[in-house]
Amino acid sequence: MIKIVAKMPVKADQVENFKEIARELVEKSAAEEGNISYTLNVSKADPNCLAFIEFWKDQAAIDSHNTTEHFTTILPKLAALCSGEPEVELFDLLF
Amino acid sequence: MIKIVAKMPVKADQVENFKEIARELVEKSAAEEGNISYTLNVSKADPNCLAFIEFWKDQAAIDSHNTTEHFTTILPKLAALCSGEPEVELFDLLF
Questions:
Q1: pLDDT tens per residue, range B33-88
Q2: Residues A8, A84 contacting (CB under 8 angstroms)
Q3: Which residues of chain A make contact with B2, given a CB cutoff of 8 A?
Q4: Residue B19: its chain A contacts at CB < 8 A?
Q5: Could you say which of 3.90.650.10, 3.60.150.10, 3.30.70.980, 3.30.70.100 is the CATH number of the domain covering A2-92?
Q6: Which of B23, B26, B95 shows the shortest C-beta gap to A39?
């Protein structure tokens, strides 16, 4: 299993807009065959830091996800609401 | 639900030792009533960065976890194998 933590530094006045646009991405990504868990979360330390926390079956599932229409059309809209670059980290499950 | 991502910068020659000691912490934490998911993972970008990724029912579950014998006795052993301070981030689930 591969886990992704993608932290998005959202402009303070765009947080509600970000959540509204992200909902479709969350729903459609969670419905993909290779997805195990896909959620949007908010940092307890920074209310403008929203984080996608994603569990995927394997790299093929992530590669497939990255080509979906919901990913390629919605992510740029979300990136445009950020004040800086997203910070994306990938992890392999040990146990 | 509250999610924790706790990144541990492990000394290069202590990674296998860290994993061995962490296994009991993972198993006992995952068995707690308020735990939803508790795993040890390794960063794809840095093989010496091991990360606990934890899903908890609520803050009370985390408070209870923090007083368990497995947490209070094993975590210091793991911290002693690190080259720096752990980086711990907490997130509230939005959707």
A1: 999 999 999 999 999 999 999 999 999 999 999 999 999 999 999 999 999 999 99
A2: no
A3: 44
A4: 94
A5: 3.30.70.100
A6: B95
Are the C-beta atoms of residues B41 and B29 closer than 8 Å to each other?
A: no
CB A10 within 8 Å of CB A52: no
Cβ neighbours of residue B63 closer than 8 Å, sequence gap 6 or more: none
Residue A42: band (very low, low, confident or very high) from pLDDT cuts 50, 70, 90: very high
Cα distances (Å, whole numbers) of residue A13 to A19, A24, A48, B18, B37? 12, 20, 9, 43, 33
Q: Please tell me the distance from the alpha carbon of residue B55 to that of residue B48, in angstroms, as a whole number.
A: 23
Please tell me the distance from the alpha carbon of residue A26 to that of residue A8, in angstroms, as a whole number: 14
